[in-house]
Design a protein that fits this description.
Blueprint (H helix, E strand, L loop, with lengths): L3 H6 L29 E2 L4 E10 L2 E10 L2 E8 L1 H5 L9 E8 L4 E7 L5 E3 L2 E3 L3 E7 L7 H12 L4 E7 L6 H14 L4 E2 L8 H8 L3 E5 L6 H8 L26 E3 L5 E4 L20 H9 L24 H22 L5 E7 L2 E6 L11 H20 L3
Parallel strand pairs: 4-6, 9-10, 9-12, 10-11, 12-14
Antiparallel strand pairs: 1-2, 2-3, 2-5, 3-4, 5-6, 7-8, 13-14, 15-16
Bound molecules: guanosine-5'-triphosphate and zinc ion (ZN).
Length: 394
Amino acid sequence: MSTGKDEAETLMGTRGGSPDCGNMSPPGDRPELHSPVTLDESESRIIGTVVAVQANYYRVQLDRAVATASTLLCTRRSRLKKIGQQVMVGDRVVIEEPDWEGGRGAVAEVFPRQTELDRPAIANANQVLLVFAIEEPTLDPHQLTRFLVKAESTGLSVLLCLNKTDLVSEQERIEWQERLENWGYQPLFISVETGVGINAVRDRLKDKITLISGPSGVGKSSLINQLIPFATLRVGDVSGKLGRGRHTTRHVELFDLPTGGLLADSPGFNQPNLDFPPRELAEYFPEARQRLQEGTCQFSDCLHRDEPNCVVSGDWERYDDYLEFLEEAIIYEDFLSQQSNPESIMKVKSKGKGTEQNEPKLESKKYRRVSRRFEHQNLEQLYQDFEEEENQEF
Ligand SMILES: Nc1nc2c(ncn2[C@@H]2O[C@H](COP(=O)(O)OP(=O)(O)OP(=O)(O)O)[C@@H](O)[C@H]2O)c(=O)[nH]1
Ligand SMILES: [Zn+2]
């Protein structure tokens, strides 16, 4: 746990850009939220966390309220602009020139980020809280796996929470527990309806920055309403849908948990497209991760498909999901490489009599095992994502 003073010693602000910590902080190296030290008296620094970014303004929640202000609306000092220092939601920052009465200030320095995600754009997040329901909607292991893989791909800790346990028997709950433990997870079983397990969730969110995720209807909003008192939610967020504004894909805002910690809800994160290199996929299945820790595949670039002497392929429940997602990740990689080289999408075909015509290239050999239907669906989603992103203001 670092203190404000530790942070002051490692400030980057004027000393260059953010370290490229990407979205893959190594497992086991997961940061805790900084302890609530606000005003570093020796240097009179005002320190806080950026909880929202709106146009060129940053809403900064101070570690400790000063005078009557607990948040300040800040601009970014021009010297940060000059060095290209971006300010993200979740950033720990130093504020200068506070105007306590007007509630204004200027972000002068940004502490080095411990983690950084780009979709949603959030710095220093510690964990993903993945919420599913056991019933209504019935828990679908395949969909759960997709969300788990997406959550794992952030490099953050993954906390799985199964809601609506009031709708199933204890026997059913235990069956799910055993099954998920075999996958490598220790889920929290909760019921927002009856209150079971909510305190355990609170404990796990304490002093951390948590990104909540999960499909529609599982009870995320109901859970958020339990965790954050009505009074602290801003107008427009009272349904429990935190920060769901016009910019659905990238917009993210942090909300204060009364027991300590911050919670972010980003609807874009609830469309779990698998947008990472195929080689990484095995790392996102705890079962595969474990096999790779215990053994080594014959080929260093093994995709764990049908290569000889592979330690990953084999008899584990989610191996078929692995294979399906692998194909999807390969398609995505191919799509990206075609984006960067548009000519590669088309080939010139002779139509006879000296005429030529551009036609889309057929899939390359390594992707042929993908079914047409599967490919079509996924590409449609990829194109949609791509267009959506193009249209985003950030
Ligand atoms: N039986 C039961 N119903 C619950 C529980 N938690 C939530 N619900 C109900 O499930 C329905 C969906 O809950 P929401 O909180 O709106 O779900 P959501 O995940 O926010 O859904 P989206 O807004 O579509 O993302 C509501 O009718 C809730 O009352 C629970 O623990 N048990
Ligand atoms: Zn292998």
